Prior knowledge:
The complex is a heterodimer. Chain A has eight helices and 13 strands. Chain A has helices at 30-44, 82-96, 116-133, 188-197, 214-222, 237-249, 264-273, 295-304, and strands spanning 62-70, 76-77, 80-81, 100-111, 136-145, 153-163, 179-182, 227-232, 252-256, 286-290, 312-318, 325-328, 334-336. Chain B contains 16 helices and eleven strands. In chain B, the strands form two sheets. Chain B has a six-stranded mixed β-sheet with strand order 4-3-5-6-11-10, with helices on both faces. Chain B has a five-stranded parallel β-sheet with strand order 2-1-7-8-9. Chain B is α/β, with parallel strands linked by helices. Chain B starts with 9 loop residues before the first helix and ends with a helix. In chain B, helix 11 links the parallel strand 8 and strand 9. Chain B is globular and about 65 Å long. The longest helix of chain B has 17 residues, at 222-238. The A-B interface holds A 198, 200, 258, 264, 267-268, 271, 273-274, 321, 324, 326, 329-336, 338, 341-343, 345-349 and B 1, 4, 8-10, 13-14, 36, 42-49, 63-64, 89-94, 103, 114, 116, 138-140, 142-143, 194, 222-223, 337-338, 348-349, 357-361.
Amino acid sequence: MTEQHAFDMTCPLPLAQYPRVLMAHGGGGRLMQQLIEKMFRAAFGNTVQNHDAARLDIPQARLAMTTDSYVVRPLFFSGGDIGALAVNGTVNDLAMAGAKPLYLSNSFILEEGLEMETLWRVVQSMRAAADHAGVSIVTGDTKVVERGHGDGLFINTTGIGVIEHDFFIAPEQVKAGDTVLLNGDIGRHGMAVLSRRENLTFDSEIESDTMPLWETVQDLLAAGVRVHCLRDATRGGLAAVLNEIATSAKMQIDIDDTAIPVDAAVKSACEILGLDPHHVANEGRFVAFVAAEDKERARDIMNRHNPRRDAACIGTVLHGKSGLVTLKTAIGGQRILDMPSGELLPRIC
Amino acid sequence: MKYLDEYRDPAAARAYAAAIRKITTKPWTIMEVCGGQTHAIVRFGIEDLLPEEINLVHGPGCPVCVTPVEIVDKAIAIAAMPDAIFCSFGDMLRVPGTEKDLLSVRAAGGDVRIVYSPLDAVEVARKNPGKQVVFFAVGFETTAPANAMAVHMAKTENLKNFSVLVSHVLVPPAMESILSSPQNKVRGFLAAGHVCTVMGTAAYAPIVQKYKVPVVVTGFEPLDILQGLYMCIRQLEEGRAEVENQYSRAVREDGNLPAQELLGKVFRVIPRKWRGIGEISESGWGLTEAYAAFDAENRFDVAGASRAEPTECISGLVLLGQKKPAQCPAFGKTCTPEHPLGATMVSGEGACAAYYRYRKTEAA
């Protein structure tokens, strides 16, 4: 963990003189310097290096690197915001490769007219998420696009992590007989964003599940759990990642639908809208393919990092038909769990 | 979850499946009319629980599937107009017209919005007086009352910038069309529960009398469907043909009378073309004279270019219950949900799309 700096919750001067982002904030001149100094460096601390590139000290190990761009509307939703996503999403991609996240880059594309206060809230959230995940933001970039040419703000983060163990964690390592584990309930992130965006109100508010996953993965590896593959169930949800891995591993995956935890509020929202929780995005959920003998230990470790304690063994891998994912249904029937075909569209009736 | 988990209880499902096996002595072909029921049957794997004598065929009750391509083309033409805001239920957006779908109109800059209720579209019209707001009023009797209410509110408020593109279809004429075909194999129906919530059950008595087929008004949860099947099979085995109501927690014999009154004001019965089947007389609703000013087809001069259905597609026979999706040579090969050739592959509730999504191992 990096040291916690208390920072002011209000937007720092002289940015207060500019309540909205101007084109000049991306123009390379004094206003951009102020933005970097007063906002980004104030939030991210001295880890942001004052140079064209960051120099990094990395222990002798294998490296992992990943990049991701974050576009989400609305920018703030119950349980999170675009800033937390941009840190956790990239940190989690490193964790899924078994890598300890160390450094992040952070590029903003800001829309002219964005409220400076909004940017400040996002930056603070990134700082808090980075602290929580134990990563440093070491370099960045800012561009401003004309009003109407962006959706408030977009973020790209690139992450570098180190692999300090000898496990090879990848789809081709998945073996027949492996147990499929899920670290908790599914569907909350997608439904939290959708309900905020579409102004849908349900009896209880659904909170995004966004969280960093490295500590869970680290504990699994440290405990000697034979982890063969990890994948976070983001876009396309659980159904998409299971299909991807079944295809890459050339295996069949059998899932028991009754074992998959789904929050009651998510379940009812999905029923009302005609959506399938298996297809809804998550930001703090992953599947782990582990040797069957290690499944209970793995589940207990997952639950240590999940306040809901609802991690579950949801299925098994078999030779079967390559690329097929089957689902045992609530009433004991069986069906295919397919990839979502694209944008999730609420059904008519 | 309350009101859902009870209707998905595995032990009760097994008990119903056993009861069905016990009373079944002959092969029977039964059609569930509604796309929502088809969806539940494949989603929960209900066919796995049934004896092999029972053959479920999937009816024409998916509004997205049966909306004719000409109307979709009109929707696309209206949505592409510069001053229009086109509002629709979500799953109409990827229904292919002759050349493209509403999603690609949106990508090209058209203002196409997903709404959850037609009343939301009326609100869009109130907030955008400088734009023409058009709602795509598709569906069966189930969605009709809310659509009628939207038109009625627009008229009451004298909203000049709101109109509806209507493609409403009716269940009983479609059932008659299936039963009167010489190739018909359907011996019993699960009627669509939500349609009956609005319209009641009276319309089915003449069908039962004329064609001697049992009709069981049925809900949408797995146990609803299993119980509906049990009631239907029991009638068939006992040689009875009656209207029975499985979905009594939602359906009354005379339906929803205030809704019917409003429907009678706003809509009149007209012939409608069904995608995959063709025209069926007295099978749909159009706006009455009093509300004709809110008909988008009157307001905008857009002709829907029509394309013949591909000849290899058997969606018409699937909708009539004469073929199963996997019996089509194009199924899963040239016809997939991403590139549908016909009506039943278009929507998630269409029989072919549901089979493709959930059951393609059996077809392969």
